Amino acid sequence: MKTKKLIIGISSCLLGEKVRYDGKSKRENSLIAKLEIVATLLPICPEVEIGMPIPRERLNLVGSLDSLKMIAEESHKDWTDEMREFSKRRICQDDFKSLAGLILKSKSPSCGLHSTKVYDGETLVSEKADGLFAATVRKELPELPIIDELSLRDASHFKDFIKCVTAYAESSA
Ligand code: SF4
Q: For ligand 1, atom 5, which residue shows the shortest CA distance?
């Protein structure tokens, strides 16, 4: 019997799509090659999907870990509420519900996992925040296996992640 291929969501820029604020990608060639053997990859870019242009001004997380805001660097537009609301809607869409795991780009104000810098004025408050999209996914779907590309480069983490993804897919089949 043919087994159904796993579906894993991935930050679009890691898959090579030129969606970053600077119009570039951050393709992870060797990870993608390994992942495509075991899974179908679904690209997701919260910033583009919410309607931001490419290129665009940089976004920063500001405030404190308890009260994060997502603020555009030049215009100072506050994207916090829009990004939180978008994230809640996005994870309810059918393609997202089909995911057995999620790979996110480290250090991003949207996608970062325990790795995004937070500033209060000129002061660096933390380098360990979740981006706003990542935070919503973790809060609303705590069982979904999630990892960033930095951790996934480690062979044992890669193996463990695929095990968790497989188990998650089986449990939700
Ligand atoms: S890190 Fe996330 S929001 Fe930023 S470009 Fe990549 S996919 Fe888009």
A: 20
